[in-house]
Design brief:
Layout lengths: L23 H33 L8 H9 L2 H20 L11 H26 L5 H31 L5 E6 L3 H12 L5 E8 L4 H5 L6 E4 L3 H7 L4 E4 L5 H13 L3 E4 L13 E4 L2 E7 L5 H21 L1 H14 L5 E7 L5 E7 L6 H4 L24 H8 L7 H7 L3 E3 L6 H4 L15 E3 L1 H5 L6 H13 L3 H17 L4
Length: 499
């Protein structure tokens, strides 16, 4: 395995009070997730309770708004019950770790925890009502308990299904590399495969001399290489997190942590203290597996959520407002030349995921077959291909490309989650197959309809410029940068500089 450097600074320092302190990034991400679940539960419980009150004490439809408020004022005790019940549900849910450990719970365990939290809340509330001498409808309380329990279980189940679906489609998954393919490594992989809601997707295992016996017993598992190649494996397979299942080899663990730190990769160990390397590191349970976080990269969870919301609403609004233009474009394409209206193209997206990218057809129907005969006219450098005044482009296609109208169907790709409004352009498989390791950075994020290269160097034929600008975008991404790119894209499109 070569020389292993062991003189590394600990990633987490010991706490004089003996408490384990998670990093600020972990605390921010965890608090955001907990806050989302708590807010969701409180809102749903409150709406359910109000719905039950309206059923139990209906307000005539002919009442004016003021009269309705007056009528509801007489139910003030019941509305106090609504607030208290929602607060109790969150309190008992916190005690059952419904908000901190929800992702690692099974669906049945989560449903049982919800039922117990709602039941305990109703019991305590009933006692509070009795002691306060308030007059509360027992039917309303009972219905609220039943419906709130069903609603909370339903929304958490729906959330789990959405997460599992996104993970299965590669949209929300964290690519995992397991060091050690013995019983523990295989058990961890099996657990991840059975619990897709955790968001982990195992890319494979790494081998070393001391693991030879273990990996030979795991011939049916994917061994991606030796430890000497770990940085290449990390980049080639877009690894987000490394799980080390050979805790007895302390020098190996420290060396891997150092290599992973260079690439900003999260590292978890199952587990040991490793001569102080793990002092103060938070111990978290993923199912039945205790792990220590030796390094966690900062994830701007809130900003990424905002970006996705902007993408979905922006793309949906664009499809709605531009539908007349898109319909007219489809008609013109169909009238001018034989062939389909849309050109579906297989592209490579985030972390090497393949998807179908849609564009309006701008070329003759057999354009791909003619490409080889035009290679000598290629005006791009490196592995890109672009021909000015391409004879395969139709007359309508030339106009569509000039104003980037051919790209409009990709708004649907944005809604689906394959693409973003802003990001590096998605390469075709042939281009992707020629990438070197350094080029793969541009695939760390969702590809976009427009990007930094399109507004900075659209006419630059240099492949190096293309890659460097995309890498700059990945390294310095922010919502403000996306906004500036979108504004500049509008000016570029109006100038008609497309080809």
């Amino acid at each position: 395995m070569g020389t292993i450097k062991t003189e590394l600074e600990p990633v987490a320092r010991s706490n004089p009070f003996g408490e384990q302190q998670p990093s600020r990034a972990v605390r921010r991400l965890s608090s955001f997730s907990e806050g989302f679940l708590i807010t969701g539960d409180m809102v749903l419980v409150s709406l359910t309770a109000i719905f039950v009150l309206r059923l139990r004490f209906p307000v005539p439809l002919h009442y004016l708004a003021l009269n309705e408020v007056r009528a509801m004022f007489h139910l003030s005790a019941h509305f106090a019950m609504v607030v208290l019940f929602a607060v109790f549900v969150v309190m008992f849910g916190s005690a059952r770790k419904l908000y901190r450990n929800a992702p690692t719970m099974s669906a049945v365990a989560e449903a049982v925890a919800v039922f117990e939290s709602c039941s305990a809340s109703a019991f305590v509330l009933a006692g509070f009502i009795y002691l306060a001498g308030a007059t509360i409808s027992r039917l309303a309380l009972g219905l609220t308990l039943v419906l709130a329990t069903l609603v909370l279980i339903a929304w958490r189940t729906a959330r789990r299904m959405v997460i599992e679906s996104e993970v299965s489609n590669g949209l929300r998954s964290r690519m995992v590399l397991i060091v050690g393919a013995g019983k523990l490594g295989k058990a961890l992989e099996s657990y991840f495969n059975l619990n897709r809601q955790l968001g982990y997707c195992v890319s494979g295992f790494v081998d070393c001399d001391k693991l030879e016996a273990q990996t030979s017993a795991s011939a049916n598992k994917t061994v991606l290489g030796n430890l000497e190649d770990i940085q290449k494996i990390i980049r080639r397979h877009f690894i987000d997190e490394i799980f080390i299942t050979v805790p007895e080899n302390r020098e190996l663990v420290k060396w891997i942590a150092g290599e992973a730190r260079v690439d900003g990769i999260d590292v978890r160990v199952i587990p040991d203290l490793y001569d102080g390397l793990g002092w103060g590191a938070p111990i978290e349970y993923i199912g039945m597996f205790p792990t220590m976080s030796l390094h966690q990269a900062y994830v701007p969870a809130l900003a990424l959520t905002v970006k996705r919301i902007v993408d979905v609403f922006g793309a949906a609004l664009g499809l709605l407002l531009l539908s007349p233009l898109m319909l007219a474009t489809a008609i013109v394409i169909k009238l001018e030349s034989p062939g389909p209206v849309f050109y579906p193209s297989e592209r490579i997206g985030r972390k090497g995921r393949r998807f179908t990218c849609y564009k309006f057809r701008t070329m003759v129907e057999n354009a791909e077959a003619l490409k080889e005969s035009l290679m000598h006219l290629n005006q791009r450098t490196g592995i890109l291909f672009k021909v000015k005044s391409d004879p395969r482009v139709t007359r309508v296609g030339t106009w569509l490309r000039r104003y980037s109208i051919d790209e409009l169907p990709q708004l649907w790709n944005v809604v689906k989650g394959d693409m973003s409004l802003v990001g590096p352009r998605p390469p075709v498989p042939g281009e992707y197959g020629q990438y070197e390791l350094g080029h793969l950075k541009r695939l760390q994020v969702l590809p976009g309809i427009t990007g930094l290269w399109q507004v900075e160097a659209r006419q630059d034929p240099s492949f190096e410029s293309y890659i460097s600008l995309d890498a700059e975008y990945v390294d310095h991404w922010s919502m403000w940068l996306d906004l500036k790119i979108l504004l500049r894209t509008a000016l570029v499109v109006l100038a008609g500089t497309g080809q």
